[in-house]
UniProtKB/TrEMBL annotation:
PANTHER family: D-ALANINE--D-ALANINE LIGASE, D-ALANINE--D-ALANINE LIGASE B. The gene is ddlA. This is D-alanine--D-alanine ligase. The active site is at E17, S153, S288. The lineage of its organism: Bacteria, Bacillati, Actinomycetota, Actinomycetes, Streptosporangiales. It is found in: Cytoplasm.
Amino acid sequence: MSDLGHVLILAGGLSYEREVSIRSGRRVAEALRAAGVDVETRDTDATLVPAVLADPPDAAFVTLHGGAGEDGAIRSVLELLGVPYVGATPDACHVAFDKPTAKAVVGSWGLHTPDSVALPKETFHDLGASAVLARIVDRLGLPLFVKPSRGGSALGASIVRSAEELPAAMVGCFAYGDTALIEKYVQGVEVAVSVVDLGDGPVALPPVEIVPDGGVYDYSARYTAGHTEFFAPARLTEEETEACAAMAVTAHTALGLRDISRTDLIVDVSGRPYFLEVNVAPGMTETSLLPMAAEAAGRDLGILCRGLLEIATQRG
């Protein structure tokens, strides 16, 4: 058995991504047990704090997606309880979880990111949706990509190919958040690059190329086996691969992240990568990208997660 002691995996929560989180937690638990780690999985409900106080874990692995899992709230509670955990600090999560803010930060570090505008729902109500939407199309052109400014799993996200499609896309977006991020859609190869830091600095794992059957990497394409084809490593040139890795490591550093992250990007037809967003709690399901990248790098998922927990306990 591992000398890590008692490890707590947090999975579930009350976000729209609850079911994905449960699957991620189950996969990490299985991988860690196979690596000889004593694991307990808990949901983030009213029983969590009393349970931690009664039997304090030696470390925690957060597999919560969306909401409190990625905005820093649960990590703040873990710090209040004195529990070391894998992943970014609450302050870093606040910045990374808000997509417009994250884009502004990495942009100041010289990374390319699609031209965009972020607007809250109240703006359309106060100024008139038609006038605002028309100006967005004039400014950014078509096609566009609309998504909530916070959250993941492509919930509320859609491609807009004509001005007539934009109002419905905004309605769908606002169902999952109060602010919409409207980006100029970049045509190219969709790639995810995971970054891990086991104590020697952040290192990019092989990029994973994403080819959804329907052309859009939506919720169904992400979590339904067979709906998306993945290539790990991605079918990129050596120069493109190096540029993607450098972008992911730079984003990880610029946003003040630690231990683990995943950067989503697009490589356009000229070979230039564009930063889309970063995930501080990457999915760990059977169709998730970080485990694929780890396998492509010849890394066992359980041993990788165990190493991250060891780093966390050293901080604790």
